[in-house]
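Colleagues,

For the teaching module next term, I've prepared a clean inverse folding example: a structure given as C-alpha cells, and then the sequence designed for it. I'd like students to try predicting residues themselves before seeing the answer, so please don't circulate the second half yet.
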C-alpha cells in the first residue's frame, strides 16, 4: 500500500482571517498479504479472501501561515502507524441460465480503533472504529448479438463515521453521541468490447453518502450534508 492524504483549511471569519491557513499531508506506505481461494462448477462459483491485520507507516508534513491561527488543528505526532483491520470476504455467483449470471459478495472489516486522522477537521466527529460489513450484488446478462454483456451492480458500504448529536452547554465540555453509521450507496452499469487480441471494459459508477448532525447549544442546528461521486472506468 502507498499513497497520500492531503487536507488544507483556509480561514474566513467574515473576511478577517482569509489569509490564514493550515495544511497537512500524510504519506502512507506499508505491506500486507491477502489470501484467496476459488471454486468453479458449471452453474456455481465461490470465492473467499482473507487479509490479516497489518500496520502501515504514516509520515506527516505540516504547514502553517505566519499567524499560526490553526496550530490547534494539527496533530502532535509527525510519525504514526495505521492499523488496518482484519478483512474477510465471501463471494458467490450463480449461472441462472445460459446467458444470465447473478453475483453476491459480503465483506467484513473487523472493529479497530483508528490511530491517526487524515483530516484537520471532521464534519461530524472522528471515526469510531465500529465493525464494517459491506454488501454487494451484481447481475450480468449476455446479449444475443456479438456477445455484448450488460452488467449492473449495487453496494451498501458503511463508513467509519456515524451521524452525531452534539451538546454544547456554555462553560461545559462538548458531548458528542454517535448514532447510526453513515452509509455509501453505490450503483454501477457497464459492458465489455471484445477484440481479437484483448478486450476493453467500460463502466459508469454513481455513489452518494448522506450525513446528519444535530447541534444543541443556546440554539438548535440541524445539519444535513450529501456527498456524491460519479466515476467513469475504462
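(Answer key — instructors only)
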Amino acid at each position: 500500500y502507498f499513497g497520500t492524504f492531503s487536507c488544507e483549511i483556509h480561514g474566513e471569519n467574515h473576511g478577517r482571517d482569509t489569509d490564514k491557513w493550515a495544511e497537512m499531508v500524510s504519506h502512507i506506505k506499508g505491506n500486507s498479504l491477502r489470501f484467496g481461494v476459488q471454486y468453479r462448477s458449471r452453474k456455481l462459483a465461490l470465492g473467499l479472501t482473507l487479509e490479516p491485520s497489518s500496520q502501515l507507516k504514516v509520515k506527516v508534513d505540516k504547514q502553517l501561515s505566519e499567524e499560526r491561527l490553526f496550530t490547534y488543528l494539527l496533530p502532535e505526532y509527525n510519525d504514526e502507524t495505521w492499523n488496518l483491520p482484519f478483512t474477510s470476504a465471501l463471494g458467490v455467483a450463480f449461472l441462472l441460465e445460459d446467458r444470465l449470471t447473478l453475483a453476491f459478495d459480503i465483506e467484513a472489516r473487523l472493529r479497530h480503533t483508528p490511530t491517526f486522522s487524515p483530516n484537520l477537521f471532521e464534519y461530524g466527529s472522528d471515526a469510531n472504529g465500529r465493525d464494517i460489513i459491506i454488501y454487494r450484488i451484481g447481475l450480468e446478462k449476455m446479449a444475443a448479438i456479438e456477445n455484448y454483456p450488460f452488467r449492473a451492480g449495487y453496494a451498501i458500504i458503511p463508513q467509519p463515521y456515524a451521524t452525531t448529536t452534539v451538546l454544547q452547554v456554555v462553560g461545559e465540555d462538548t458531548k458528542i453521541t454517535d448514532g447510526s453509521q453513515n452509509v455509501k450507496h453505490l450503483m454501477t452499469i457497464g459492458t465489455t468490447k471484445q477484440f481479437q487480441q484483448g478486450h476493453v471494459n467500460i463502466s459508469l459508477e454513481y455513489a452518494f453518502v448522506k450525513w446528519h448532525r444535530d447541534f444543541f447549544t443556546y440554539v438548535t442546528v440541524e445539519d444535513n450534508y450529501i456527498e456524491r461521486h460519479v466515476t467513469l472506468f475504462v
